[in-house]
Write the structure tokens for this entry.
Amino acid sequence: MTQLHLDLKKLTHNFTTLKGRLKATTKIMAVVKADAYGLGAIALSKHLISLGTDWLAVAYAQEGITLRKAGIDCPIVVFYPQFERIDSIINNNLEPALFSTAFIEAFATALKQKKRMNYPVHLKCNTGLNRIGLSASEVDDFLTKKNDYPFRLKSVYSHLGASEDPRPNTFTQKQITSFLAIKKKVEKTFTNPPLFHLLNTSGVFNYPEFQMDLVRIGIGLYGFANRAEWDQLLQPIANLSSRVVQIHLVQKGESVGYNQGWIAQKESRIGVLPLGHADGISRQFGKGVGGVWINGKRAPIVGNVCMDMLMVDLTEIDCEPLDPAMLFDHLHTAHEFAEQAGTISYELLTSLSPRIQRVINN
């Protein structure tokens, strides 16, 4: 009854639109971590491969293993490899991002034990985001020891922390300058240098002159780009819909939901939808904050969102049981729905429960 419809034609449009902003030689890494931002990594990854993406990228090894088990054999980068999954990474031919000296040593030791040489890896540099990554001095140390490691360095990269902010931006420029200095050192060290990449979706729009050899595109593939003028060029690929399962006539003074979260100020018609915070619609959307679209009108969510249900005010809406209710679509996007509760499309989409049926529309 509650379904998340995914439009592959819109995914194609977004991929083509973003690719069209790149040089012909610039490669694309499609980011499908967190189950493709909550939308369904297997189906979307297969389509992205058919469109010509050069790499897929996941956050953790298990996500990559899931793709391998689904028959996906293209290169897969693991952004945040975990020490305890090193054997799994190697056994499934996943390509880790080397983010710390400790992980470099642990991964090299495991490869030597398995007698694996020239294993494909990527070097993650910290240029100011201060999340994970090697410092400039740690990169220098890696370069001095590179011949001792059983690695084939495929790329060196960093991540911009504010690529969507208006230019000029002092913080972003400092990150770019730091990465260019690392890039220069690496290029001097290798006869055949690896690829270099710095840009995410927002960076593709805002800093195209720094696209280098490769860009990493995530949220843009799914229809969002963190600025209204960029969003207009993309098409959200996901529609989340449900249905009204029951309608109650609530008298003035009666309450709706847990802890009497809403009190009727007049005789009201209250509809019930079969999804709640266990499906990713958090309690922050309750008490009139969020709303859904039913028969062309906005129905505010009333009371507290329950684990499996939420209630909406239908008093001013001509509606019957089983009528469709749209939480977000191309007209009222996931970005707009998320904004109602003070969050972002990333958090909303990645919170959507697996129990919501995914429907692929070709």
